[in-house]
């Protein structure tokens, strides 16, 4: 992060991405967060940090505890995603939009100042604010749709619905029998 050109005062949020199998990438992200928090004009700008490559859990070097302690220290929202598997990428984008919406009103001006050393309180519902209700409804519908998709996969639709080792190996055996050429004598 030798080039701090990303520290533009007109941004609405920062998204830092690191790899869960690289401590160096996490340290770079934390250095960038420190740069943002040390700049007075950006001190209260929302920050979202995403750990990528959760599909490589066995190679993890950045611990969840380390990430959560940094989040408590610098006041940012964390997500763990896998771009390769498209796992929770939509949730990351919705979370980023929610943080921007929470920090800024619909007019685009700072709605409130957030001290990044304090946990962010969830906004209370206000009567007569149609835009916020629509946004909350959209997020709720999205979450319900994602839950239905997960439920459909778990109930079994021919895809790897049960991820127990025995069922996995049975499906593998069936697949190998069906696809391997048999030589009949």
UniProtKB/TrEMBL annotation:
GO terms for molecular function: calcium channel regulator activity; GTP binding; GTPase activity. GO terms for cellular component: plasma membrane. Residues 116-137 are annotated as: Disordered. The keyword tRNA processing does not apply. Residues 116-129 have a biased composition (Basic and acidic residues). SMART domains: RAB, RAS. Keywords: Phosphoprotein. InterPro entries: P-loop_NTPase, RGK_GTP-binding_reg, Small_GTPase. Transmembrane segments: none annotated. It comes from the Eukaryota. SUPFAM superfamilies: P-loop containing nucleoside triphosphate hydrolases. Belongs to the small GTPase superfamily. RGK family. This is Uncharacterized protein. It comes from Pristionchus entomophagus.
């Amino acid at each position: 992060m030798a080039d701090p050109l990303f520290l533009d005062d007109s941004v609405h949020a920062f998204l830092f991405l690191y790899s869960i199998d690289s401590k160096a990438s996490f340290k770079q992200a934390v250095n960038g967060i420190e740069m943002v928090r040390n700049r007075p004009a950006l001190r209260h700008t929302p920050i979202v940090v995403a750990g990528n490559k959760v599909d490589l859990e066995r190679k993890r070097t950045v611990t969840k505890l380390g990430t959560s302690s940094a989040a408590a220290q610098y006041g940012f929202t964390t997500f763990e995603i896998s771009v390769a598997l498209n796992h929770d990428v939509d949730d990351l984008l919705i979370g980023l939009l929610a943080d921007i919406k929470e920090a800024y009103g619909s007019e685009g001006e700072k709605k409130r100042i957030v001290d990044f050393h304090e946990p962010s309180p969830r906004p209370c519902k206000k009567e007569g604010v149609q835009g916020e209700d629509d946004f909350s409804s959209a997020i709720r519908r999205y979450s319900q749709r994602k839950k239905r998709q997960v439920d459909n996969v778990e109930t079994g639709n021919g895809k790897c619905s049960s991820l127990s080792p025995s069922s996995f190996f049975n499906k593998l055996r069936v697949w190998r029998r069906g696809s391997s050429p048999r030589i009949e004598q």
